[in-house]
Amino acid sequence: MAPPFVISGDVAAASSVKSAPATGRVASVYSEVQSSRIDHALPLPSVLQNPFQIVEGPPSSAAGNPDEIAKLFPNVYGQPSAMLVPNKVDTLSSDQKLRIGC
Question: Which top-level group of life is the source organism from (predicted)?
Answer without folding.
Answer: Eukaryota
